[in-house]
Amino acid sequence: MSLTRHLKTALLATALALTGLQAAQAQAAKPQEQFFPLQSYRVGPYAAGGTGFFGGFIDYLNLVNTRDGGVGGVKLTWEEGETQYEVERGVEVYERLKTRPGIAAWNPLSVGIAYALIDRVTADKVPLLTINHGRTDTTDGRVFKYIFPLLVNPYSETSGIVNYLGTKAGGLEKLKGKKIVVLYHGSPYGKETIPIYELLAKQYGFTVQQIEVPHPGNEQQSQWLTIRRAKPDFVVLRGWGVMNPVALKTAQKTGFPADRIVGNIWSNSEEDVIPAGDAAKGYVAITSVAPGTQYPVLQDIVKTVYDAGKGNLQDKKRIGSVYHNLGVLNGILNVEAIRIAQAKFGKRTLTGDEVRWGLENLKIDEAHATALGAKGLFHSIHVTWDNHEGDGRVAFQQWDGTQWKVVSDWIAPDWKLLRPIIEKSSLAYAKEKNVKVRTSIDD
Hints:
Blueprint: H1 3-29, E1 33-38, H2 47-68, E2 75-80, H3 87-97, H4 111-124, E3 128-129, E4 147-148, H5 154-169, E5 179-186, H6 188-191, H7 194-204, E6 207-214, H8 221-230, E7 234-238, H9 243-253, E8 261-263, H10 270-273, E9 284-287, H11 296-306, H12 322-345, H13 352-359, E10 363-364, H14 366-371, E11 381-382, E12 395-399, E13 404-406, H15 415-433
Parallel strand pairs: 1-2, 3-4, 5-6, 5-7, 7-8, 8-9
Antiparallel strand pairs: 9-12, 10-11, 12-13
């Protein structure tokens, strides 16, 4: 080979090496992003919940980006897909956005959509968060590796409500002989707790009558006439969206007192009581997140996000409302899972499976909540690889005509009763779907 050819070959190799180095440097310099696909709903009968929750979620992501530069230098990004709370639309949004790089987790805030995604997210190895709702047996992380019903699942919520009614009656043993009506939304979400109410009725000796209200719940006259004839001691309102104020107004028309109605976790917002006017005064509802703007994290959002014109809510008066605060808390849980996962895997864009590991190590106690500016916003959460819910503690709040006031301590569910039921159901699912039951976080 001539000297000229040697020189040409060497120059070509050098050029290729420089090109590769420049490409690597460009890739390294490319901003890291963690993506949240949002199956939101801002129109339709459940728009109040959707705008409040997703507004709070986006506000918190904006806060972290603006104040902190993201998480570990990784910017948080998102894109919304309108579902109108419909399963088919939710699945369409999933299929359209699932190929986007750097997906952290899915947060649909819809039982129907969540059910439709269980097999999909498991195959794609990306976590699905169903805060305060979802399929109860997904609490068992041994079987449902990628599903996280954080804070409260439907059965622990039900147990918390019955425990609260026990305190109202003078003790759980005093529930014997009492009559409870459950007025539930005619959807998979509404029907989820039918068997657990039957079980708790046998456990404590009360009678239960469960009455369905067809979606969306604009007409309930016949149901409340049935309730008036039944003369229950308490009514549990397991509603959603427009069903809730209609229930309170119809109860007043039929003479049933609001202070003997206890709302579930999706019947506890300002949007549920304000439209009902004076019919809502005295109404009690369960909650996993406290209302109000007194928390430093909410004040940071106002100062950093809204004062800069980046707020997601059209009406600033909704800042600090139940739905908005739940969205903020959901943002905290997602972001802290990413932060925990980055400590193990590096400060970079994470895979969905790595975020799943972060969720399975998610622990926020009072000290951690204080550092986040969220002390008192919620009780605590400690997720493990086999318990994908956390502590399950709830409080109860009462509407005084202008605002919610917390009227109870934080109440724990009856885990000794619930966990075997959850495991029986999850193991049956594992057998049906041929899912290997995990024995550790590494499985």
